[in-house]
Write a structure and sequence with these properties.
Length: about 220
């Protein structure tokens, strides 16, 4: 687990394709690696990666096909900046929100404009994730824990303060930039709980599909 508070900006040294998946070599920048061991997890742009080899200044990680399909990792090139955070410990401050490092989908920056000393970003989420994004709720963008300022359909707006711009890769974002999104895990569990017994059925419906079915049944004329 992670907090979504970025600890350092590293960079991609090498992205090597290997039999369909990927091996990454990453420079950890200013991230303190003294307490990191083989097998530990480090979130890179919100993707939980396992350290398979330690380097003098960084580490190597393997990336599965599943991760390549659901994240932006396959687009990373040598020199690209990467938000980094070591995994949460029992004594860590939970300054953001609980982040699993399991990316739900890829969003796209559609607008950016200044707002006093901050920057306003509008990001478009995949349609299937829109129901988990709420006004003043939490969302993780490339590993950064953020508060949603406004929601309109699949689009949501963020206010990024100068500190976050300076200490993450947000400063590089422009319209068209693709980003990793992880929705609040509480929203996912809440949806599952609201499904009740339906959740255990084979190929169970989503909450949206269930609500639509109930409305259609209520509006249908009685067959009696």
């Amino acid at each position: 687990m992670f907090t979504g508070i970025i600890q350092a900006v590293g960079k991609v040294v090498r992205a090597e394709r290997r039999d369909g998946d990927l091996r990454l070599t990453l420079d950890s920048g200013t991230l303190d690696m003294a307490d990191v061991a083989l097998g530990d997890s480090i979130a890179c742009n919100g993707v939980c990666l396992t350290v398979v080899e330690q380097l003098e200044r960084g580490f190597i990680a393997d990336v599965s096909v599943e991760t390549l399909d659901l994240t932006t990792v396959g687009l990373w090139q040598a020199g690209a900046g990467v938000n980094m955070e070591k995994s949460l410990t029992p004594s860590s401050r939970l300054g953001g929100h609980l982040v699993s490092g399991h990316v739900d989908g890829i969003g796209e920056v559609v607008e950016r404009h200044p707002d006093a000393r901050s920057e306003r970003f509008t990001i478009r989420a995949p349609a299937q994730l829109a129901r988990y994004i709420a006004h003043k709720g939490s969302i993780t963008v490339d590993g950064t824990s953020l508060t949603v300022n406004k929601v309109s359909g699949s689009d949501f707006e963020l206010n990024i303060v100068p500190h976050t711009l300076e200490h993450t890769i947000f400063s590089n974002y422009q319209p068209g930039t693709r980003v990793n999104l992880e929705v609040d895990v509480i929203a996912r569990y809440l949806e599952r709980l609201l499904l009740g017994d339906v959740a255990g059925s084979q190929g169970g419906e989503s909450l949206t599909e269930l609500a639509r079915s109930l409305l259609e049944n209520r509006s249908s004329p009685s067959s009696a």
